[in-house]
Design brief:
The chain is mainly beta. The protein has two domains: about 90 residues, RimM (Elongation Factor Tu (Ef-tu), domain 3, Beta Barrel); about 55 residues, SH3 type barrels (Roll). About 5% of the residues lie in helices and about 45% in strands. The protein has a six-stranded antiparallel beta barrel. It has a six-stranded mixed sheet with strand order 10-9-8-7-12-11, with no helix packed on it. The longest helix is centred in the first third of the chain and has 5 residues. The chain is elongated and about 55 Å long. It starts with 6 loop residues before the first strand and ends in a 6-residue tail after the last strand.
């Protein structure tokens, strides 16, 4: 079973390409380009499904993938819109970077105006990164809003402007 703590978001599948099942991914970061992992993980109906990457190539700032068992345009079309993740373990060969990413905050407790909630998901699909909390509310995540970060306790205190 693939746990949310084992993966992090790298992009979204945006369209099919050609007739042989090739699919285009808009990348949110450079993690794929740095590692070229053998697998990607797609969120299909809320289930994390691994796919082996058979071939890939760059297309501008995006990437085109040929995935195992995706052999036609109709196969690829069913995957358009899926969020794309990588395993954190595939990042082991990447340059040592011990700083936290927003995806690392999944499962952490967030304190806002004295109230605690758990971060269940992080949405980095737009320029404004959002934490989705266990009560389904959303709050912005930005370094300027973080008053306290306690890695040992997995606790984040946010100082949000009035009205948010």
């Amino acid at each position: 079973m693939i746990l949310s703590t084992d993966i992090f978001l790298i992009g979204t599948l945006v369209r099919t390409h050609g007739q042989n099942g090739e699919i285009q991914c808009h990348l949110n970061n450079d993690c794929w380009m740095d590692t070229q992992a053998p697998f990607i993980i797609l969120s299909i109906d809320g289930i994390m499904v691994p796919f082996r990457v058979l071939e890939w190539r760059e297309k501008g700032e995006d990437v085109l993938w040929q995935l195992q068992y995706v052999n036609s345009e109709s196969d690829a079309r069913r995957l358009v819109g899926c969020s794309v993740y990588m395993l954190r373990s595939d990042m082991a060969d990447r340059v040592e970077d011990t700083s936290l990413t927003y995806q690392d905050l999944i499962g952490w407790m967030v304190v806002i105006s004295g109230q605690e909630r758990r971060i269940v998901q992080v949405d980095e699909s737009t320029i404004n990164t959002l934490a989705i909390l266990d009560d389904e509310s959303m709050v912005p995540l930005h370094e300027d809003l973080m008053e306290e970060v306690d890695e040992a306790a997995k606790r984040l205190v946010l100082n949000l402007p009035k009205g948010l």
